[in-house]
Amino acid sequence: MTPLLRHHSIILLIMRRLRAPLILLISILAISVLGLTLAPGVDDEGRLHYLSFFHALYFMSYTATTIGFGEIPYAFSDQQRLWVTLCIYLSVIGWAYSIGTVFALLADRSLQLAIRTHRFLRAVKRLREPFYIVCGYGETGRLICSALDQLGYRAVVVECDEVKAGEIDLHSYRADVPTMCADARNPELLQFAGLTHPYCIGVIALTNDDSANLAIAIAARLLAPKIPALCRAETPETAANMASFGTRHIINPFEKFAEYLSLALHAPAAWHLLTWLTGLPGTTVERERDPPSGNWIVCGHGRFGRVLVQAMEQESAVSITIIDRESSDNPHHRWVQGDGTGAPALEQAGVREAAGIIAGTGNDVDNLSIAVTARELNPELFVILRQNHYANRSLFEAYDSDVDVVPSEIIAHECLAILTTPLLVPFLNEVKRRDEPWCAALLDRLTGRFGWQVPRVWSERISFMQAPALHRKLMHGATITLREILRAPSNRNDELACEVLYLHRDDDDHLLLPDPDTEIRAGDELLLVGRQEARREFDLTLSNEHALTYVLTGRDLPGGWLWEKFSRAPVASPAAHER
Predict the structure, then answer these.
(1) What band does 566 get if pLDDT is binned at 50, 70 and 90?
(2) 3 state SS of 93
């Protein structure tokens, strides 16, 4: 791990590399000036004349810079012109050497790295809004940065691949994304990236190297224990190591999808609701058919296949047949040796009578071949297709599978759910405990109102910082219900296009889908779902006293301090009432 170049190393590096050329130029100039003062000349009257040091320096300065004003203050003698000729050739040699050194210095990778580091440090230091540190700008990192940009959050990226780091400038992000091409395992670099910055609100480790993610998790835990760190882990050993250091959020995309699949098999509505709420902003979720019970074929018994088999074993209505190139290592299920890309292995696994198939190998071409062949043999087959590389997106979109497993999207969904809306996690946990009719009714009601486009999910804490107007009224003893504040500040007769899904209170009196007549208390935190314009209007109601008064009472207050002062009714004195 190479140490980072400090920002002050730029000046030191430049001065060190240019030391010899500068000494040479200064020496040539000094010798030229000295010789010119010693060379004899004549004035207009033919008398002996010597140039002063000032005149000699002035002449050599404009001569060396090729300006060439002329000979001063009198025409030069042959001795002076001979010396000037010698000085010209010396200066050409000196400038050629210096310019060559400058070009070599500009192409030096150490200087370029020092300059980039300095710019990166300044960009991070100037941030004055909440931001996340994203370590790794691969497929997942690109999705995360794009989603954060749409949600209005800033991101600082650390990526060791120069090509990937250079791609950031090609994406049209609304705000600049400070980027550093370096190894994120270096804890000093994480500090430079803003780990201890007062506006840093999270660290996301998304590299494809578990050891790097583990190093980032440890650095975040020790250097900034209050900042949440969300780390990707491909193996259970790495996840256990991260957990031992107190990493709050560890995501294994294979285990997360296995959890989704298990949920989809016994509670499809809850699965659809989870997919809809945690989708990437700006996308539309299409409701697919529910995964059926019966015999399932799993093609590929690697890390992904093993996790899925373990999850599906918990479902009593599901039987499993495994197709893999290796010989059987799971005696509890039927095993067919092969790759599944051809009909014989699929026929032997009973594809014609199967309910579903999972093409889960590590090769995208093989997975597509398995899915196409299986659908030809059984058109009603429920197909789950694993996509390993996001670059093959167009191929997978061309094939009409029921579910595409994209690890980068799974991680992105989970990251956004955890970091941008922490209250969404306990709500989803509560949903998983509910029965299928309850989840189906909630899904139909929400999608019927907001459609299948991924909604805006956000949380609001009733505090002085986030909701000053509402908090002030509550602290003065006002009684306000959810129904009263979920009104449009432009027309209080219209309801906002949002709903409260979860109400979190500090006394553990949490409410799932609270009743509209529920009274709000100071300190409550609300989880809301709706459209983006509804959030803007709701934020205005919470923070602006005039908008809140209009929503609650219908009274439109004057818009300024002076008008408020004049609009207040004068208070009559008791003596005036007696008269």
Answers:
(1) very low
(2) helix
Residue 73 tokens read as: 């203050």
Instruction: Give the pLDDT of residue 420.
Output: 75
Q: Which residues contact 132 (CB under 8 A, 6 or more apart)?
A: 144, 148, 153, 154, 155, 156, 200, 201, 202, 203, 204, 419
Nearest CA among 458, 425, 409, 418 for reference residue 204: 418
Asked if residue 382 lies in contact with residue 117, where contact means CB atoms within 8 angstroms, the answer is: no
Q: CA 492, CA 191: separation in Å to the nearest integer? A: 48
Backbone torsions φ then ψ of 412, nearest 5 degrees: -60, -45
**Which sign, positive or negative, has the C-alpha torsion 113, 115, 119, 125?**
positive
Angle at 433 between CA 430 and CA 438, to 5 degrees: 90
For 528, the 3-state DSSP assignment is: strand
**Residues in contact with 95: Cβ distance below 8 Å, sequence separation at least 6, in sequence order:** 25, 64
| Other beta carbons less than 10 A from residue 10's beta carbon | 17
In 3-state terms, what secondary structure has residue 551? helix
Asked if the model's pLDDT at residue 572 lies above 70, the reply is no
CA–CA separation, 142 vs 247, rounded Å? 23
* Distance spanning both ends of the chain, measured CA to CA: 90
SS3 178: coil
Count of residues making up the chain: 579
The CA R_g of the chain, rounded to the nearest whole Å, is: 36
Distance (Å) of CA 461 to CA 444, 518, 526, 551 = 28, 16, 6, 19
Distance CA 7, CA 177 (A): 20
Q: Are strands 498-504 and 41-42 parallel, antiparallel or unpaired?
A: unpaired
All residues at 6 or more sequence positions from 551 whose CB lies less than 8 Å from its CB, including other chains: 484, 485, 487, 488, 489, 492, 541
Identify the residue whose tokens are 């006002």. Answer: 478
**145-165 residue pLDDT tens:** 988 888 888 999 999 888 888
Of 53, 194, 59, 82, nearest to 135 (Cα)? 194
Q: For residue 413, what are its two tokens?
A: 């969904």
Tokens linked to 111: 């200087």
Give the DSSP letter of residue 171.
S
Mutual angle of helices 53-64 and 19-38, in 10-degree steps: 130
pLDDT in tens, 176-233: 999 998 888 888 889 999 999 999 999 999 888 889 999 999 999 999 988 888 999 9
pLDDT in tens, 355-400: 999 999 989 999 999 999 999 999 999 999 999 887 888 888 889 8
Which of 437, 457, 550 lies closest to 498 in space, CA to CA?
457
Q: pLDDT digit string (tens) for 97-117?
A: 999 988 888 888 778 878 888
Q: How confident is the model at residue 559 (pLDDT cuts 50, 70, 90)?
A: low
CA 135 from centroid of its chain's CA atoms: 9
